[in-house]
Give the backbone structure.
Amino acid sequence: MACGSSSFDPGFIRAVVDVVGRAHVLTDPDVVASYEIDWTGRFRGSTPAVVRPGSSEELAAVVALCRAGGVAVVPQGGNTGMVGGGVPLHGEVVVSLRRLTGVGPADVAAGQLTVQAGATLADVQVAARDAGWEYGVDLGGRDSATIGGNVATNAGGLRVLRYGDTRAQVLGAQAVLGTGDVVEHLGGLLKDNTGYPLHLLMCGSEGTLGFVTAVRLRLVAPAPQRVAAILGMKDAASALAAAQALRLGLPTLSAAELMLRAGVELVCAVTGAPPPLPSPHEAYLLVEASGPADPTLELTAAVAGLSGVEDAAVAVDPRRIAALFRYREGHTEAVNSLGAPPHKLDVTLPFGVLAEMVERLPSIVDAVVPGAAVWLFGHVGDGNVHVNVTGVAPDDERVDEAVFRAVAGVGGSISAEHGIGTAKRKWLELNRSPAELRAFAAIKRALDPDGIMNPHVLVPPA
Ligand code: FAD
Ligand code: MLT
Ligand code: ZN
C-alpha cells in the first residue's frame, strides 16, 4: 500500500536544521528509504525529511515549527510496528526518536527504571537485570523495538498473562504533545491520585497525541528459575483448553503460546531447525513456568493432568529454552519470507469462543479469497491469536474486513496488541461506539489542535 509525498517548503527544512543540526535532518532519498517502509513491507510511503532530535527541548522546537507550517509528522521508533502506523504514507515528515537512548537511573529500592524513548526493549531488559530486577514485557522484536514505540502501541508480547501489557508497567512519562508543550510526571509514586493519568493516555496512542520522550517503568521481581515445555497436541482445541487449564493450575505460568503444524513446519523449513518433536502434531503449545524456585516438577505435574497431549519435550537449560522459543518467535520472519507481504490481523477472542473461532478462521478467509494461506499462532494465554494471511495482494482488504467483522461479531478485538495504525483504522467502529470515537476525536483536538500528529493513524477522520 503506497502513497506519495508532494512538494515541500525548503524554509521549513532550513528552520529544522537550525534546531537539530544538519547531521540530524536526513533528506537523501537513499538514506531515508528505510524509514519509508514498514517491517512487513506492506506499507510504503515517502517523506521529504527524517528529523532526529537529540532532546525533548529540540523536539518541542520542531513541533512548534510543524504547527506554524502546518506540517504533519509521523513519530518513528524502531520501525517494527505491524499496522502501518510509523511510516509516512501521506508524505509526512518522519521524526525519529532513536537518538534518545538514555537508560537509567534505576531506582533499585523502588524497583523502577527511567529510560528515554529511543532505548530498545532489549536495553531496558538488560538494565533491569543489572539493577537486580526484571522488566515484565518481552517480545520478538526486542532488539529493534524502542520503549517509546512499545508505549505508543501498548505492546503486549509473551508475558502478558503474568505481568500485563506495557501500560501496566508505565508509572509516568515525559512527552512532547502536539501543542508543543512538554509534560513530565516521572516521580514514580505508586499511589498518586492527582488528576488525569496523562502517561497512560500516551499508552496505545500511536503517535497521534504527541511524542513519548521518556518513561518511568515498573520492574518485576526476578524469576530466575525457568522451565519451558513444547507440547505436541491432538488439535488446536486441545491446545487452547490446555492453555486455559494451566492458567488456573500452574501459578508460575509465564507464557502459553499456540503454534500449528503448518507454521512450525514453515519455521523449520526457513530456519533449518530440526522438528521440535520426533513426529509432527496438528498443534503445539509452548509453555513456560518461572519463579524464584525451580518450577520443573510443578510444570510436569500440571502437564500430566492435561488432555490431548501426544508428546512433550521439556527444557531447563537456557539455551534449550531459547531454542524452543525460536519455533514460536520464528513465525514472524518465516511468514514474511513467503513473497508478498502478509496481512497481519492480530485479534483477541473471548475465551468462550476461542477454539471455535480458531477452527472457523481459515474458512472465513477462504470464502473471500480462495486459496489464500492462513497462518495462526499467538499468545493464547491472553486469548490473542495472530491471524496471518499470505497470497493476498497488499491492497486487497477483503480478508481483513471479513476477519475483523467475524471477530467483532463474537465480542473480540480487532487489535490485541499491534494497534490500529492505518491498517485497521476504517474498522475501528467495529469495536468502538460513535460516542467513544467522538471522545477520541475531542482528546486528539485538545492535545494536537492542528492535527499534525500522525493524522492518518488510529482516530478515524471526522
Ligand atoms: P514503531 O514501529 O517505530 O512505531 C509504532 C507506532 O508507535 C507508530 O504509530 C509510531 O508513530 C508510534 N511511535 C513510535 N515511537 C513513538 C514515540 N516515542 N512517541 C510517540 N509515538 C511513537 N508487538 C507486540 O505487541 N507483541 C509482540 O509479541 C510483538 N512481536 C514482534 C516480533 C517481531 C519479530 C516484530 C518485528 C515485531 C513485533 N511486535 C510485537 C510489533 C512491534 O515490535 C511493536 O509494535 C513495538 O511496540 C513497536 O515499537 P517500535 O519502536 O518499532 O515502534
Ligand atoms: C508475535 O507475537 O510474534 C508478534 O506479535 C509479531 C507477529 O504477529 O508476527
Ligand atoms: Zn504477538
Summary: The mean pLDDT is 97. DSSP finds 14 helices and 16 strands in the chain.
